[in-house]
Every structure is written in structure tokens, then in C-alpha cells.
Write a structure and sequence with these properties.
This protein is α/β, with parallel strands linked by helices and 187 residues long. It has a single domain (2-182), classed as Leucine Aminopeptidase, subunit E, domain 1 (3-Layer(aba) Sandwich). The protein has 6 helices and 6 strands, in the order βαβααββαβαβα. A 6-stranded mixed β-sheet has the order 1-6-5-2-4-3, sandwiched between helices. Strand 3 and strand 4 (84-92) form a beta hairpin. Helix 2 (40-48) crosses helix 3 and helix 4 packs parallel to helix 5. The chain is globular, with a radius of gyration of 16 Å. The chain starts with a strand and ends in a 5-residue tail after the last helix.
Length: 187
């Protein structure tokens, strides 16, 4: 896996996509009944591509036997761009996190569910594409979902490290992007 880091707005990045390359944009969504998709990258994506939210809501309300709506599952959504697919990954629970009676507050991110989602994404890519697509995303799970940057980056590397996929990490926050970029996979 090769990584690239871009200080850019997602909409601007999408406007500049190369028509000769296939792209996948995975992002994290929550497992709340009925589906809530109201902020972060998810909001940016559904404002531009309404089917991202519409399909997510249908999936959340009418879970399918072959692909139930639950943590660890993914939903592939085509866009009006022939070369861009959005992937909803259910790897977040309880929008504000969870506070057990006798324990610390847990952020909404569910790391094991993210691992499961990414393996499903990898399987989808390897079975559906003759040549590997490029992946771009925000700093998945590191903002609204409250995930630890080092943990997230290690998970992505664990799943995709044995592939030749290019993963471009996008952020409009230079400090966050530089912090994420500085994390070594080998420490």
C-alpha cells in the first residue's frame, strides 16, 4: 500500500479526479436504527451525492439477510461518476460515545468493526476490479468517531499493507493531517 496526504476539501478533490482511474471513497457511519448521517465527511458526501444517504437509510430501515445493517458491514453506493464509488462502513456506535456505569467513556469508533469493514472492502475490491482502484478518504474514524490516529492507521495498514493500492488521506486541517502523516507504521 502506498499513502499520499493532501490538504484539500473533499469536493475539490472529487472535482479533480482523473477520468482514467477508478476511485473508492470509504467513510464511517454509525449503527443507529434508521441511520444518522449528519456531520463530517458523511455529510459532505451525501450533500453532493444524495444516494449515499438515501441508500444508507433504506439499508438501516430494511436490513437485508445477505448484508445485514450492523457493525462491521459495508454498503457500496455508486455515484453519477462512472469511476467513483462511495462505501458506507458501519464502524461507529452511539454518536456521542458510550459511558459504562463503572468505566471510562468510550468513543463511538468500534475498532474491531472497522477491521471487519476494511476486510470486506478489500474483498470487494479484489473481486470487482480488474485493476486496483485508488482509495481516498478523510482521516477515517479520527474526527467525529473519536478514534486514535495511530490505531486507525495501523488497522488500515494491517488490512491493505500487502496490496499495491494507493490510499490518499484528505483533510482540510493542516495540523491534523501532519500529525496523521507523521505516524510510523513500523514503531
Amino acid at each position: 500500500m502506498q499513502s499520499k496526504y493532501c490538504l484539500i476539501d473533499v469536493n475539490q478533490y472529487i472535482d479533480e479526479l482523473d477520468n482514467n482511474i477508478n476511485y473508492i471513497c470509504p467513510h464511517i457511519v454509525n449503527d443507529m436504527y434508521g441511520g444518522v448521517m449528519g456531520s463530517g465527511l458523511a455529510k459532505t458526501l451525501y450533500e453532493r451525492f444524495p444516494d449515499v444517504k438515501n441508500n444508507y437509510h433504506l439499508w438501516a430501515k430494511h436490513s437485508q439477510k445477505h448484508n445485514p445493517f450492523k457493525l462491521g458491514r459495508i454498503q457500496v453506493v455508486d455515484t453519477e461518476y462512472d469511476n467513483l464509488t462511495i462505501v458506507n462502513m458501519v464502524a461507529q456506535s452511539d454518536c456521542g460515545g458510550y459511558k459504562p456505569k463503572n468505566g471510562p467513556h468510550l468513543p463511538p469508533i468500534r475498532y474491531q468493526s472497522l477491521v471487519e469493514c476494511l476486510y470486506r472492502l478489500k474483498d470487494y475490491i479484489l473481486s470487482e476490479y480488474e485493476s486496483l482502484p485508488a482509495i481516498f478518504s478523510g482521516l477515517i474514524g479520527c474526527d467525529r468517531a473519536g478514534g486514535d490516529m495511530k490505531q486507525i492507521k495501523k488497522i488500515v495498514w494491517q488490512v491493505f499493507g500487502d496490496t499495491d493500492i494507493w490510499w490518499t488521506w484528505l483533510s482540510y486541517d493542516e495540523d491534523q493531517l501532519n500529525k496523521f502523516k507523521s505516524i510510523s507504521m513500523f514503531s
